[in-house]
Design a protein that fits this description.
The complex is a heterotrimer of chains A (367), B (273) and C (282). By secondary structure, chain A is of the alpha+beta class. Helices cover 25% and strands 34% of the residues of chain A. Chain A has two domains: 242 residues, 3-Layer(aba) Sandwich (Rossmann fold); 108 residues, Nucleic acid-binding proteins (OB fold (Dihydrolipoamide Acetyltransferase, E2P)), CATH 2.40.50. In chain A, the strands form four sheets. Chain A has a six-stranded mixed β-sheet, with helices on both faces. A five-stranded antiparallel β-sheet of chain A has the order 13-12-11-14-20. Chain A has a five-stranded antiparallel β-sheet with strand order 15-19-16-17-18, with no helix packed on it. Classes of the chains: A alpha+beta (367), B mainly alpha (273), C mainly alpha (282).
């Protein structure tokens, strides 16, 4: 795909359109335990936003605050010029797909899907029409009269989705909806969810701990760590320009090079390369795929590339690529990702471009 | 969820009311056991320990207490001896009539006690057995097997089957495994069941009513006196019974909490089976 | 995994005991109901339906049975009305104090039945605590007679005794409801009241049925409370049975009534089981 899809938020910011949801300085503690500190985030119309984080990062709590099941200690949430956080969950135009689906066991599939519509007292005909539309959208029409206990996990997940979407919410929240599925089904659902979101055009806020999943599906990723946002950017941006060491390591593999900058030259062990940074200690993220094996001889080398050598300590087979652990003479250890080839041994010559050594901040210490 | 609270502000008051309803009679009883003029009359006055003194001098009561204790311990023995295997059998064996057996074992729990009592009376009559403490023991023991079975059965569900398999794997036979692994694992359930059986037996009237011989159990002794009229002594003994029951039940509950998870009482154990 | 010998060893003793001390007695009960008693006070094995005919012929038996059922029904209803909100409060609102409150519920359950029935007797009498209290605060001038020795007293006492029996299964079934179902219902726009009627209550029905069954069956067969507090107008069916095994000496008739009670209870249990299955969504 060569088209660059601009993050919706950037687009809307440019055109001066208000974001759909504005989360402002939200903080939440459970007892003495601060779970969210000063979270500010905006979600645009039609955007697929993923809140990514480890367990304990506060991502589920943030989602529950948006849904209304928890109330924040500080801050506010505004949706379309209205204070969302002052409303109880059953009056918010927000719907949730729960992690364990939370389907009502005593109702059939179509009764489950129509629940929200029945509660808002729509006419029987309208309900029937919208329910069958929703079931068709998730391809579960033949199961309309089944009970949740009699359908598979993946099917329950679709029903949970239909049940939420049928109410035409302004925002759909998804709390790790794919975590209970096995790997293949999960990948399939990722694609389906993404195209569903495009089709329906509603903003999705998706919570997960799986960084690969986040990258596949999102327009933007908000990386949450210990209650604070590390970085909020598109997947490509967050991958190629991580802001902190944590981001660089959490998303994909990376080599963290610790070094010093003096006179616009960065030095890390025996490696040095030109940089445009102030003097002082510095940290760089260098992705393993950006370190390449020198194929040609010494001659004809691009003068800008930094060269070094090392011995292969470990070779991990990953299918299309392999990850090599290289030990340099000065003791520096790097990972290098390269195309698969059997039996690499001995001394290897490697090179990388200084532009790929992205300077990152040290992640803040958090109590 | 925060909004829900304002809609149901009456709930805590209702709860308080129900607790009051459940406890006030007992509290009244205890207060009046110290009441000078005896039972009844408001407000309570002339607080005294006289009734307790009378109680402690009353030989007949203490004889019946002794009888009740004997019966309770003996019944405990019978109920556990047959209730534990019954629970194991329901958990691990399949045999013809299993469904009938399960219902039969649990029946005394839900049936009015007098039915169990009088059918046992007919049995003893037919076998020409004289009524005595022994017949009461047999009655209690039989009726309370269900308590042992349900407690132990519930405990069995939490036992790790792999432990018994490991024991067998390491060379112990079934008998050894039973005593070294199974029973210790069920320790808490068994103790809990024992405590419950003991308490229920001490208070048992319906079955005992039909099977009594010359010697009275405590409840029947109290019952006999009630037929003759109320005396404040009865308040005193009732208060003492209450305190002991309280200790027994809280003790039982703590045990079940230690055995992890929620405690189950016979009231909800019917669904276990 | 378990050998034949093991399984026999754990099955046979309880099976034999239960057969001897439960099955045989109930069978005897069955047989006795078809026999009769001779004028010389001996049991005659004449195998007839006379006892059952007697039950339907003589009014007092059916009357008492219906009165007992009506008392049991009232006890059940009141127990549920008192018990359900308490169980609900315990499950959804008690939070940290849930454990303590649970203990508070089971304590009365196991404290001597006799003690509790007696307590009510002392409270409801004309010289009892309640009457003297009412007179003391000048709400009444004379003792209220209906408080004791009436069906009212029986219903009150039995409700007091069996409400915890009703609370526990309801509480258990409420606890089994995953809380995310409540959140999902709110999420989909249902208010707390709508959520209760559409989600929580339907899922708690098995517990309600169990609690109702306990309360009904146990009150129906109760003989202590009516004897202590019922007076002549509060006699219940079990009291008749007890007297037939005592002074009135007619074991066969007593057996026939008991068998009818037994069948009634079994029928109720079967019915509740079927209903519970229908309403249980596991």
């Amino acid at each position: 795909m060569t088209t660059v899809i601009e993050p919706a938020i950037a687009r809307s910011a440019k055109s001066g359109v208000q974001p759909l949801l504005a989360i402002r300085t939200i903080a939440k503690s459970f007892g003495k335990n601060p779970v969210l500190r000063d979270i500010s985030l905006q979600i645009a119309e039609g955007e697929f936003m993923t809140i990514l984080g480890e367990s304990g990062s506060g991502k589920t709590t943030l989602l529950r605050i948006i849904a209304g099941f928890e109330s924040a200690d500080a801050g506010e949430i505004v949706m379309e010029s209205e204070r969302l956080d002052l409303l109880p969950p059953y009056r918010r135009r927000v719907n949730t797909v729960f992690q364990n689906y939370a389907l009502f066991p005593h109702l059939s599939v179509e009764e489950n899907v129509g629940y929200g519509l029945r509660v808002s007292k729509l006419s029987k005909d309208e309900i029937a029409a919208r329910v069958s539309e929703a079931l068709a959208m998730v391809k579960m029409t033949p199961f309309a009269k089944s009970k949740p206990a009699n359908i598979s996990g993946g099917q329950q997940q679709r029903i949970a989705l239909a049940r939420a979407l049928v109410n035409r919410p302004r925002l759909l929240l998804l709390d790790e909806p794919l975590s209970a599925l096995d790997a293949n089904l999960r990948r399939q659902m990722q694609v389906e969810l993404k195209s569903l979101q495009r089709e329906v055009g509603i903003s999705f806020v998706f919570v997960t701990h799986d960084q690969e999943e986040a990258m596949v599906m999102s327009d933007r990723i908000a990386l949450l760590r210990m209650g604070e946002l590390e970085q909020v950017a598109s997947p490509r941006e967050i991958y190629s320009r991580p802001a902190t060491a944590y981001t660089a390591q959490f998303i994909g593999h990376t080599n963290l090079l610790r070094g010093d900058v003096r006179g616009n030259v960065a030095r890390c062990n025996s490696l040095s390369w030109p940089v445009d940074l102030p003097d002082g200690p510095a940290l760089f993220s260098l992705r393993p795929e950006n370190i390449r094996l020198v194929t040609s001889g010494v001659g004809g080398a691009d003068m800008n590339l930094i060269r070094f050598g090392g011995k292969v300590q470990n070779q991990a087979f990953h299918g299309a690529t392999e990850l090599l652990q290289i030990v340099c003479e000065d003791g520096l250890m790097v990972s290098v990702r390269t195309a698969t080839r059997e039996g690499r041994q001995g001394e290897l010559h490697l090179e990388f471009s200084p532009a790929d050594a992205v300077p990152v901040r040290e992640s803040a210490e958090r109590g | 969820m925060s909004d829900a609270r304002s809609n149901s502000r009456w709930l805590p008051w209702h709860a308080l009311g129900v607790f009051g309803f459940l406890y006030l009679p007992i509290v009244t009883l205890i207060v009046y056991s110290f009441n000078g003029p005896g039972v009844g009359g408001f407000p309570p006055r002339n607080l005294t320990l006289d009734w307790y003194r009378m109680l402690f001098a009353d030989d007949a009561i203490w004889e019946s207490v002794l009888n009740s204790l004997i019966v309770a311990f003996a019944a405990m023995g019978i109920s556990l001896t047959f209730g534990i295997p019954a629970a194991l059998a329901l958990d691990r064996a399949n045999f013809p009539g299993k469904a009938l057996f399960r219902r039969l074992v649990l029946l005394p729990l839900i049936l009015p006690g007098i039915i169990t009592g009088l059918s046992l009376l007919m049995l003893f009559r037919a076998a020409d057995v004289k009524l005595s403490l022994v017949t009461i023991v047999l009655g209690h023991g039989t009726a309370l097997i269900s308590v042992a079975t349900t407690e132990v059965f519930a405990g069995l569900q939490k036992v790790d089957r792999a432990q018994e398999e490991a024991s067998l794997d390491l060379g112990a036979n079934y008998w050894q495994t039973f005593w070294r692994i199974t029973i210790p694992n069920l320790r808490l359930s068994i103790i809990g069941a024992a405590l419950l059986i003991f308490t229920l037996s001490m208070d048992e009237i319906a079955v005992s009513f039909f099977l009594i011989g010359r010697d009275n159990t405590l409840p029947l002794e109290i019952w006999g006196r009630l037929r003759r009229g109320i005396t404040p002594e009865i308040n005193a003994i009732s208060s003492i019974i209450f305190v002991f029951s309280l200790i027994a039940i809280v003790g039982w509950y703590r045990l079940r909490i230690n055995a992890e998870g929620k405690p189950e009482t016979p009231a909800e154990l019917v669904e276990v089976a | 995994m378990f050998s034949r010998a093991y399984r026999t060893a754990i099955t046979l003793p309880p099976l034999l005991w239960v057969a001897l001390f439960l099955l045989v007695p109930y069978a005897l009960l069955f047989c006795y109901s078809f026999w009769s008693v001779s004028p010389s006070q001996t049991i005659v094995h004449d195998w007839s339906l006379d006892n059952y005919r007697e039950l339907f012929r003589v009014n007092v038996y059916l009357q008492t049975l219906f009165r007992s059922m009506w008392i049991a029904a009232r006890v059940t209803i009141f127990s549920l009305l008192l018990g359900y909100p308490l169980a609900y409060y315990l499950s959804f609102y008690a939070g940290a104090r849930k454990d303590l409150f649970y203990q508070l519920v089971i304590i009365p359950l196991w404290v001597s039945y006799l003690v509790r029935a007696y307590a009510w007797k002392t409270i409801l009498g004309s010289d009892g605590v309640l009457n003297t209290l009412l007179q003391y605060v000048h709400l009444t001038k004379h003792p209220l007679e209906f408080l004791l020795y009436s069906p009212f007293a029986v219903v009150l006492t039995l409700t007091h005794i069996y409400t915890p029996f009703a609370i526990l299964p309801i509480y258990a079934s409420l606890e089994h409801i995953p809380r995310n179902l409540v959140e999902a219902s709110h999420d989909l726009g249902a208010s707390p009241l709508q959520t209760f009627w559409r989600v929580i209550f339907p899922l708690s029905i098995p517990g309600v049925l169990a609690g109702a069954t306990f309360a009904f069956v146990l009150s129906l067969g109760d003989f202590l409370a009516p004897l202590l507090l019922g007076g002549p107008s509060g006699i219940m069916i079990s009291n008749i049975v007890v007297s037939l095994f005592g002074a009135a000496y007619n074991w066969p008739l007593g057996a026939a009534i008991s068998l009818c009670m037994l069948l009634l209870v079994l029928a109720l249990l079967l019915l509740t089981e079927k209903l519970e299955k229908k309403w249980s969504f596991r």
